[in-house]
Amino acid sequence: MKQLSLLIILACTTLIVSAQEATNQTDAKKRKQGPWIEQVESIRGEPGFSWEGVYKNDRKEGIWKKYTINGDLLAEETFKNGTLDGLCKYFYPDGKISAIGMMVATDIEGQKDTIMVIDPVTQEEKLTEVTRKGNSVRQGEWRIYDEEGVMLKETYERGELSNSVMGNRRPANAAPLPHEQGAGKKKRTDY
């Protein structure tokens, strides 16, 4: 009995300590590190939202979740080196999935290149270093659902649409898709 009580106390202490982990921290070089929550205000008629995820050396890393101002999940996107690269899921305001697929990074944020630049006045050529912005494109099969659950399958090859097939509603007795499974998630049965 003492061991069980000790185990429960240890588990509760671990939960409290992990819940108190600091967010929005920077290191000595002023780079964002660890768990982070960002608020994006409304602009030009677009509603505001919040981001939640982890930074590693000032770059988004792993799964980032995007929420409405009301706290409804809008998206789960996977980042590597600050650029979308991996599974992405997008949701309707009612929680139903609107799209799911893979993104692949074509340029990594902060990657350096050297290019030849010609001065327009003197016509002198000189090497100039440029820093790339992160860029990602769709890759592989994407499933896009309308609000009634009708699916469109699109296949991409490094951002270029190569195939598009309109699907039907999934039967109510069909096995759930991998993104529909998981602890604490309500399974969608209205396909």
From TrEMBL:
Matches recorded under Pfam families: MORN_2
The entry's keywords: Signal
Residues of the signal peptide: 1-19
Keyword Signal listed: yes
InterPro entries: MORN_2
Keyword Transmembrane part of the UniProt annotation: no
Segments for region (Disordered): 161-191
Protein's recorded name: MORN repeat variant
Organism: Chitinophaga niabensis
